[in-house]
Design a protein that fits this description.
Elements lengths: L7 E9 L2 H12 L5 E5 L4 E8 L2 E8 L5 H9 L2 E8 L3 H10 L10 E2 L4 E5 L9 E7 L7 E5 L2 E8 L6 E5 L6 H12 L4 E5 L17 H15 L4 E6 L1 H12 L4 E7 L7 H9 L8 H10 L3 H13 L7 H6 L5 E6 L7 H10 L3 E6 L11 H12 L9
Parallel strand pairs: 1-4, 5-8, 11-12, 11-13, 13-14, 14-15, 15-16
Antiparallel strand pairs: 1-5, 2-3, 3-4, 6-7, 7-8, 9-10, 10-12
The protein binds zinc ion.
Amino acid sequence: MISSLLPRLEHVGIAVADPGPVRTLYRRLLGTLPYKVEEVQDQGVATHFIAAGAAKLELLEALHEDSPIARHIAKRGEGLHHLAFEVDNLTTHMARLQEAGFRLLQDEPQPGADGKRIVFLHPKDTHGVLVEFCESQPVLPTPTMVATPDGALAVYSWGSADRPPLVLLHGAAGSTRTETAVLARALAPHFHIAALDFSGHGASDVFAGAPLTADLFVANVQAVLASFGWSAAHVFGFSMGGYIAAELARRHPAQVSRLAVHASNAFWDEALVAEMNARLQPDALPSHVQAQLEHIHRDWRLLFDRMRTFVAGLPDLPDVPGRLQSIQQPTLITAADQDDLFPLQSALDLHAHVPHSRLGVLPGTRHGIARVSVPALAELLHAHFLPKASRSSG
Ligand code: ZN
């Protein structure tokens, strides 16, 4: 079983007007000085970390007058600012909390100190105490760079080599780091996993003038299979990765043992292209998202530009039903019941056309792997790729 941890107290945030005397205070109280100071520009704070048993204290110093900490001190003075609870899947807990009636101060997880992703609850819902939920960012393995004619691909690997091979494919304008890594961590006990960044995505090379096409992405996956010496593997793809996984399964059936796709769509029209491409307009994105994309991709503006062209060509794909009907592998199709990009009908259409397919529907309102319960999705994938009869061990 893949279990979900209960929230644990990770740190206590304390607003300080001047860190000097407060550092001295905690040295006198606890016998220790902060072990690290980190500036979080997005929040306008410098964070002084003090070890305190299983949890820690974070002294929060305003970097400028507009900082939420400066406003807090002006209104309420120095002192206790918030409690932070760590969870292993922040987006799952965000959905749980919203369902329970808590208002969140942010729609999406924000970058916090210490490499965490954080979100705050409205203090009116928590009897006056500001509560933060946080999640440590998955530590990615160092990628291996696999050379191809179009540039080097970043490939991340998890799990031991005696396990069945599984390839994980991220979505359009996504990356292993932001999409498939969370699934790789959940599945690593059962598989030897390779997750690649497609050409132009994540840590992979920016293609030298070659347009991004399904042919190129299929070739990307074949290069990874070859680099591991795998004649065949199970293949999972999220969104566009699902399309590429299905194309590989159809064109090169011997290379794909079993197939799974999540939140994928095969039938494109101009309205859906417009919806998708609205999400690929760099200047329409909030500045903090733009800042994150700088860290995720080598040249995210060029990538978004090329991906709009890729998406615009999708309605021209000939004979989509025939393509899907020629897939022979056992296939698992999963979807979030209220995906805001591809409606459930997208999954039903796939299920109707792919011959040996099963359908799994998870609660979820947004388009993304971590927007559904990752443990639940991992369980479905585990059961699909390793049916009980073929499992050698638990
Ligand atoms: Zn905090």
